[in-house]
Design brief:
The protein is an alpha/beta fold and 374 residues long. Helices cover 35% and strands 14% of the residues. It has a single domain, classed as NAD(P)-binding Rossmann-like Domain (Rossmann fold), CATH 3.40.50. The termini are far apart.
């Protein structure tokens, strides 16, 4: 008798109460979402999210932000080894890997059938034999949006690119604009996100320019860019996950300051403490060289990269920004040293910003001092 009453006492003590703020009703579908726990990695937010493109640069950050708050995240992947690091982003069973092929609709259905929000981060910087810009940015995005709508997904967030324009000379930007239209047609309440050039650890912006022995300049270094930190973009995507008012809106995410490419290269040289030789290459020569020596499997510079380097970032009037999400973006000057420090020389590795290496005496002066001492 005593054991039974003691057990009932323990059960009543450990039971958790439910309050109104534990219940969320999705506006589009009306489905209830109930959370458990006090919040954090070991709790359950009640949400299930699918992140297409999760194995890419930006994808790993949004997966981490969602999983650490108790959201179950479905991570579709193509390569077995590409999703290993994502498993530890969440608690046991919260990060669910699922092999998929963008051309297989059944794979997409399996990935989104239980989700209440879907992120589409899939994109390509270069074309391959099996995946052209049209197949990935337009057809693939429209397919994911259509299947998500048919299976009753509440929210759809599509990541495009700043400068997306159907009349752009860049095929990349043209297909990105067409992809936005295709997504909005299939999923009218989709949220469109247009980030600028994203920098951070293992990026393809600062790292690409800092890793070369010589620097090349196109368009005289006059093209303008507004780089944005990957932390800011991931934070914006996370807030869209919670904020229903972002439904159907377009957001352009860019850094707080505009730079020319020449200024970006000057900053890189200063941070890595190495003044490299620069070559200004005319556009016809650059296109001819990249077409002749372009190797997709080595991620060398492609002709499409040359076209984009001649286009300056343009801000669309009326589009929402970080300010509408309550986010203050990080500056490039104060947050790029962590990315570029590994390219410094051993002597300057631990030096702070603004460090100027002392000028070394030439060999003749050194020998003269040694001879004088003797």
């Amino acid at each position: 008798m005593f054991s039974v009453s003691r057990r009932n006492l323990c059960v009543s003590t450990l039971s958790q109460k439910r309050f109104a703020h534990d219940l969320i009703i999705r506006q589009r579908t009306g489905k209830p979402i109930i959370k458990y726990g006090a919040g954090g990695r070991s709790s359950v937010s009640g949400h299930i999210a699918t992140v297409f493109g999760c194995t890419g640069f930006l994808g790993r950050y949004i997966v981490s932000k969602l999983a650490r708050q108790g959201t179950q995240v479905v991570v579709p992947y193509r390569d077995e080894d590409s999703k290993r690091h994502l498993k530890v982003c969440g608690d046991l069973g919260q990060v669910v890997p699922l092999e998929f092929d963008l051309r297989n609709e059944k794979n997409i259905e399996e990935a989104v059938r239980h989700s209440d929000i879907v992120y589409n981060l899939i994109g390509r910087d270069h074309e391959t034999r099996n995946f052209s810009f049209e197949k990935v940015h337009v057809e693939g995005a429209a397919k994911i949006a259509r299947i998500s709508r048919e299976l009753g997904v509440s929210r759809f967030v599509h990541v495009s690119a700043l400068n997306a324009d159907k009349n752009s000379p860049s095929k990349f930007y043209r297909t990105k604009a067409l992809g936005e239209e295709a997504v909005r047609k299939e999923f009218p309440g989709a949220t469109i996100v247009r980030p600028s050039a994203i920098y951070g650890q293992e990026d393809r912006f600062l790292t690409r320019y800092a890793s070369t022995k010589y620097e090349y300049i196109l368009n005289g270094g006059r093209s303008k860019v507004r780089p944005v930190h990957v932390f800011d973009v991931a934070l914006a995507l996370e807030r869209m996950f919670k904020d229903e008012s972002t439904t159907g809106e377009t957001y352009e995410l860019y850094g707080p300051r505009e730079y020319t490419f020449e200024q970006v290269l000057d900053l890189i040289d200063e941070l890595i403490d190495n003044r490299r030789l620069r070559f200004n290459i005319p556009k016809p020569i650059a296109l001819a060289v990249t077409k002749a020596f372009y190797l997709p499997f080595l991620l060398t510079i492609s002709p499409e990269d040359i076209e984009r380097l001649f286009i300056s970032d343009k801000i669309t009037l009326g589009a929402k920004t970080f300010e509408d999400l309550g986010i203050r973006p990080l500056s490039l000057e104060m947050n790029s040293l962590g990315v570029l420090r590994r390219f410094r020389t051993p002597k300057a590795y631990d030096q702070p910003l603004g460090y100027s290496r002392p000028i070394e005496k030439n060999k003749v002066e050194k020998k003269r001092e040694i001879y004088t001492e003797y």
